[in-house]
């Protein structure tokens, strides 16, 4: 699976959104997802416009915004069209299906209405996926235009997402490709389906972290986040798409930083699939 090109994995994918992601990544030649962990909508839109040409996915946390509005969503969708990227709301749903369904399609954010992709914890079991599907069946969004990523393994220090939980989370993703396009994880171990896209956060170059290096590959942010280099996550951990947040948002020029991360990640991918 890891040696296979994104184009041929798209052919084998049984989920429409995962095929769409894999084709987009292949044609735009970028496996970079930028995490917009900012609290102001103008700043998020400015970032989306700056990094848009270099990314495949723009990842939001809209519940961290102080001034969320419908207008913001429309402007973000416009930028997604102009620059050709997908929008992922990193909501990390984690409740029973009925509650998750309300959080997805109702409330002030109405995520189902605008986010191409969302993230979901595996902890409630398959009912959470059914809840999200049920929400879409009763909304104006097409089921085939939406998908989720299962958070199987977290990047944070001493995470509990290990052992049998991790294997069960991957199994959940593999058995629910009707709505699951990918897996958020730190390694490809146990993932066999060619269509599932591995999204790996905790990525930062040593130089963009002001010398806070702890050892060759793994560094931290003081609040439990652990970082690996772009090369390492693609070649050693099996990342298809790498999530970079502060490595780009805190750079002097987010657009130059995004271009650099895109180039480093793409070079590593080409090395991975080279025969
Ligand atoms: N994220 C992680 N680790 C996970 C899952 N998700 O860091 O296991 C998300 C965070 C944040 C981004 O919610 O939005 O990825 C990482 O940002 P950073 O590069 O600034 O650390």
Quick recap of the structure?
This protein is α/β, with parallel strands linked by helices and 275 residues long. Helices cover 41% and strands 16% of the residues.
What does this structure look like?
Its EC number is 2.4.2.10, 4.1.1.23. Keywords: Decarboxylase, Glycosyltransferase, Lyase, Multifunctional enzyme, Pyrimidine biosynthesis, Transferase. This is Uridine 5'-monophosphate synthase. It contains eleven helices and ten strands. By secondary structure, the protein is of the alpha/beta class. The strands form two sheets. The chain has an eight-stranded parallel barrel, surrounded by six helices. It has a two-stranded antiparallel sheet with strand order 8-9. The longest helix has 20 residues. It is globular, with a radius of gyration of 17 Å. The chain starts with 5 loop residues before the first helix and ends with a helix. The relative contact order is 0.16. 6-AZA uridine 5'-monophosphate binds next to β10 and α10.
Strands, total number: 10
Residues in β-strands, percent: 15-25%
Q: What does the average pLDDT come to?
A: 95
Helix content: 40-55%
- SS element count, helices: 11
Which compounds are bound in this model? Answer: 6-AZA uridine 5'-monophosphate
Terminal Cα span: 13 Å
Poorly predicted spans: 211-216
Main sheet makeup? 8 strands, parallel, barrel
From the alpha carbons, calculate the radius of gyration and give it in angstroms: 17 Å
Question: What is the strand and helix layout of this fold?
Answer:
Elements: H1 6-12, H2 16-28, E1 32-36, H3 41-51, E2 57-60, H4 70-83, E3 86-93, H5 97-105, H6 111-114, E4 117-121, H7 127-137, E5 147-151, H8 163-175, E6 180-184, E7 197-200, E8 219-220, E9 226-227, H9 230-235, E10 241-244, H10 246-249, H11 254-273
Parallel strand pairs: 1-2, 1-10, 2-3, 3-4, 4-5, 5-6, 6-7, 7-10
Antiparallel strand pairs: 8-9
Helix pairs in contact: 1-2, 3-4, 5-7
Residues 35, 37, 61, 90, 154-155, 184, 201-202, 225, 243-247 line the site of 6-AZA uridine 5'-monophosphate (UP6).
Biased composition (Basic and acidic residues): 211-222
EC number: 2.4.2.10, 4.1.1.23
Active site: 90 (for ompdecase activity), 92 (for ompdecase activity), 95 (for ompdecase activity)
């Amino acid at each position: 699976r890891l040696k296979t090109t994104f184009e041929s994995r798209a052919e084998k994918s049984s989920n429409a959104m995962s095929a769409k992601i894999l084709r987009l990544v292949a044609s735009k030649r970028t496996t970079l997802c930028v995490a917009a962990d900012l609290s102001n909508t103008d700043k998020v839109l400015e970032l989306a416009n700056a990094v848009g040409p270099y990314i495949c996915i723009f990842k939001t946390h809209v519940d961290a915004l102080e001034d969320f509005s419908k207008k913001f969503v429309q402007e973000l969708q416009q930028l997604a069209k102009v620059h050709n990227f997908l929008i992922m709301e990193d909501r990390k749903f984690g409740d029973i299906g009925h509650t998750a369904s309300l959080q997805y399609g109702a409330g002030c954010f109405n995520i189902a209405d605008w986010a191409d992709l969302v993230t979901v914890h595996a902890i409630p079991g398959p009912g959470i996926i059914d809840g999200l599907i049920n929400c879409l069946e009763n909304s104006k969004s097409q089921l085939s235009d939406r998908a989720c990523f299962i958070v199987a393994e977290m990047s944070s220090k001493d995470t509990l997402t290990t052992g049998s939980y991790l294997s069960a989370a991957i199994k959940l993703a593999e058995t629910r490709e009707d709505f699951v396009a990918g897996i958020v994880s730190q390694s490809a171990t146990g993932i066999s389906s060619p269509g599932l896209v591995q999204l790996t956060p905790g990525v930062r170059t040593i130089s963009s972290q002001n010398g806070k290096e702890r050892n060759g590959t793994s560094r931290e942010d003081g609040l439990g986040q652990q970082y690996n280099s772009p090369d390492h996550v693609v070649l050693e951990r099996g990342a298809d798409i790498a999530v970079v947040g502060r490595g780009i948002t805190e750079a002097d020029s987010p657009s130059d930083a995004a271009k650099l991360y895109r180039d480093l990640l793409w070079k590593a991918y080409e090395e991975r699939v080279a025969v």
